[in-house]
Amino acid sequence: MTVSSGDFNGDGRDDVAAWYDYADGSDTLWTFTSNVQGGFNAPFPSMTRPAGGWSRSKDKPVTGDFNGDGRDDLAVFHGYTDGSNKIWTFLANPTGGFSDPVGSWTSTTWGAWDQTTVHAGDFDGNGRDDIALWYDYTDGHDSIYVLPSSTTGTFSSIAEAWTTPPDNMWRNHMSIIIGDYNGDGLDDFGALYGYDDGSIKAWTWPATDDRKFAKPVSSWGVTSGYSYPRSYAIERYGS
């Protein structure tokens, strides 16, 4: 089971979506809507695929309101056996269930699925959440790419938003958390970074108006007293 949270029915309370990968190979997307006590109602299914119809193990899910209708949706970055990659959007409906997925941005040359981490946030301040891909290149350099969302919740273009030279930052030393950290209405990248000497530091990549990210700024940090492997960054929405 893969669990994500978001306001899927637009009532102002966050709900839970659970993707269940059954032993027979079939898949079902379940929604647990929340109630006024903060508990959850009995789950109900929406998207269901028979055995062989979907490979959940090759999905990287994110939650966000991708079409700007006030309900959070689910999107997945899917890697295929031929090396291609594609984004699928599961739009939420007024009940909190999900429509059949709509495919959009596709690439046969993107690179390795397992070197990509997927994040969601409103990086341009237009009221719709976008998708950002952090790519960890084999030569040691890293880049952030942004895919802006459309009014249909789909994605058609991609552009590099930030990059760093080789041997400067290592993705496996980072826990990334998206949020609007300076209150300007644009979501930023934040990260907790663990260094080889045991020190730990927080970094922020402020978003800019042109769907880019400024040079990261460091802030809190300690040289002892915290262990990065024992520290966990808490996302707004979990997957």
Report the average pLDDT across residues: 94
Number of strands: 16
Percent range of helical residues: under 10%
What order do the strands of the largest sheet run in, or round the barrel if closed? 1-2-3-4
Q: How much of the polypeptide forms β-strand, as a percent range? A: 35-45%
Rg: 18 Å
Instruction: Note the gap between the termini.
Output: 10 Å
Order of H and E elements: EEEEEEEEEEEEEEEE
Query: Total number of helical segments?
Result: 0
Main beta-sheet annotation: 4 strands, antiparallel
Classify the oligomer: single chain
Instruction: Note poorly predicted spans.
Output: none
Q: Structural class of the secondary structure composition?
A: mainly beta
Please state the overall shape, judged from the principal axes of the Cα atoms: globular
